[in-house]
Amino acid sequence: MIHLDSKLPRVGTTIFTVMSRLAQECGAINLSQGFPDFPIDGKLIDLVDKAMRAGHNQYAPMPGLPALREAIAAKVQRLYGFSYDPEREVTVTAGGTQAIFTTIGALVHPGDEVIIVDPAYDCYAPTVELFGGTPVHVRLGADMRFDAEGVKDAITARTRMLMINTPHNPAGTILRDADMRRIADLLRGTDIVLLSDEVYEHLVYDGAPHASAIRLPELRERAFVIFSFGKVFHATGWKMGYALAPAELMAEFRKVHQFNVFSANTPVQVALAEYLKQPAHYEGVSSFYQAKRDRFANGMKGSRFSLLPCQGSYFQTADYSAISDEPDLAFAQRVTREFGVASIPLSPFYKEPPAGQRLLRFCFAKQDATLDAAIAKLCGI
Q1: Architecture category of domain 15-40+283-378 in CATH
Q2: Are 118 and 349 spatial neighbours (Cβ–Cβ below 8 Å)?
């Protein structure tokens, strides 16, 4: 038997895999893992089919097809008023997670500290550890708002990177312009790199703008900004995303990217380059998901759950403390087995979960019939 010293000794199977597997075993409605259960636009399928039949089935250029990078740059200019250089500052990736992994791999050295805001998507800290960095965890406030003072207190001479996420998974909150300006204040005069995970950029509700790091020159100059086509176009299985950064930073990113995946799916890139020419394909996403958020929230008024405000993403966080004192994982598993609805407990998103916190995350990126069936079951608890 070969002896191995694990590079990630505390990492096991992700909570998403655990709960989706349990949902399948129990025949439960799966509101746990964040994926839609409805079809994508047939026009996009036709474009991929057309690209494959036209012979676009071999390696794309390492940074992505020029046509797609140009389309991305045009979209960003239209939305945020800044034009990235498609040749040097835009890279197409195999999903948002790969972009995050590559950014950390390119910038974080052994001994560097990376500030992570908990609850945080579960790939953040393990990736930092994999490259020898030290995760430094700062919690969101009790209201799931960004805690600027907590981040300020966490900054040291060894801080290499700050990771932020808006709209936030799993909390469903968003950063506002004032938050971004406060972050700019905190990072001014330092060499700290900002990694801004903005994969849910189009899922912002109630008329609020998406406060992208791109909007502030002071942040943009030090930021990797990460996006996801899968989240926007309901095609999470395609694993397609992109990273934006100033040329000097992107050059380091591409050094790792070329040995990580080299390039992303070619026919899908061809299809997306054409699809992005119509802004209507992404402009309606916010209202589409806001309707689903409202449908779920209104239905859950008949339950014993207390819903936290959902300002963005396709996740609804719910407090179950009026129902049970069980730890969140135990309660989530029991609800899956006994009531037939799978969710995600929030504790795995923390290094140290707040004592007594009783929160579950539900994904409402589902067909109305799926949501209604889940609501009926949850209202029976």
Answers
A1: Alpha-Beta Complex (3.90)
A2: yes
- Nearest of 258, 236, 249 to residue 61 by alpha carbon: 258
Strand pairing report for 113-118 and 159-165: parallel
- Reported as a pLDDT band with limits 50, 70 and 90, residue 175 is very high
Give how far Cα 347 sits from Cα of 128, 174, 342, 350, Å.
Answer: 19, 20, 15, 6
Residue 65: what residue type?
Answer: L
Provide the residue ranges of all domains of the chain, joining segments of one domain with +.
15-40+283-378, 57-279
What are 324-340's pLDDT values in tens digits? 999 999 999 999 999 99
Is the Cβ–Cβ distance between 242 and 72 less than 8 Å?
A: yes
pLDDT at residue 146 greater than cutoff 80: yes
Contact 238, 246 (CB under 8 A): no
For residue 278, the Cα-to-chain-centroid distance in whole angstroms is 24
SS (H, E, C) the chain: CCCCCCCCCCCCCCHHHHHHHHHHHHCCEECCCCCCCCCCCHHHHHHHHHHHHCCCCCCCCCCCCHHHHHHHHHHHHHHHCCCCCCCCCEEEECCHHHHHHHHHHHHCCCCCEEEEEECCCCCHHHHHHHCCCEEEEEECCCCCCCCHHHHHHHCCCCEEEEEEECCCCCCCCCCCHHHHHHHHHHHCCCCCEEEEECCCCCCECCCCCCCCHHHCHHHHCCEEEEEEHHHHCCCHHHCCEEEECCHHHHHHHHHHHHHHCCCCCHHHHHHHHHHCCCCHHHHCHHHHHHHHHHHHHHHHHHCCCEECCCCECCEEEEECCCCCCCCHHHHHHHHHHHHCEECEECHHHCCCCCCCCCEEEEECCCCHHHHHHHHHHHCCC
* pLDDT confidence band for 10 (50 / 70 / 90): confident
Q: What is the pTM of this model?
A: 0.96
Distance CA 269, CA 123 (A): 25
The CATH number given to 57-279 is: 3.40.640.10
Q: What are phi and psi of 374, to 5 degrees?
A: -65, -45
